[in-house]
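User: Hey, my collaborator sent me this sequence without any context and asked if I could get a structure. I don't really work with proteins. Can you help?
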Amino acid sequence: MYPLKKSCSAVAPLSQLKMYSFMGGGLFCAIVGNILLVVSTATDYWMQYRLSGNYAHQGLWRYCMSNKCYMQTDSIAYWNATRAFMILSGMSCFAGIIAGIMSFAHFSSFERFNRSFAAGIMFFVSTFFVLLGMAIYTGVTVNFLGRRFGDWRFSWSYILGWVAMLMTFFAGIFYICAYRMCECRRGTGPR
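Assistant: No problem. I've predicted the 3D structure and written it out in structure-token form, which is a compact way to encode the shape of the chain:
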């Protein structure tokens, strides 16, 4: 007969406090990262440039010139790819937040399914998607649009996208650390 594995709630109180601290830090980073992802994706300040003497700015969905904004009706592949990756990143970050909240509650009927690990993986998936979206936008903007507009710069919506990537990455690190603390404290027994 194999000895029963201890659950993470049976580990030493100090160790459990550290685990919950990692999970709390990860949840904070994930919520801030998800808010930044939504704001970055929805706003129109990814790039600012001067066009015919006037300042203009554009985002993933609209461009604005002379205090008037217009929808981006062109179906350009890099905009579509950036939009898709940013939306997928926000969705996977949100799924990670749900898994992270559930890991606080120990709400699972599956013995082999660890919610801290699942949350960490979802945050890393979110990081990967936002990295792809930002890299595509950066590459095309620098190589194509940057040459088209002489006086241009990336703006705050774009910067928020990179900050969101860092926040989701750190959320994943925190949740994987919490998972490792839980796994290291379990009694494994013979196999």
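In plain terms: The radius of gyration is 21 Å. You can pass these tokens on to your collaborator as they are.
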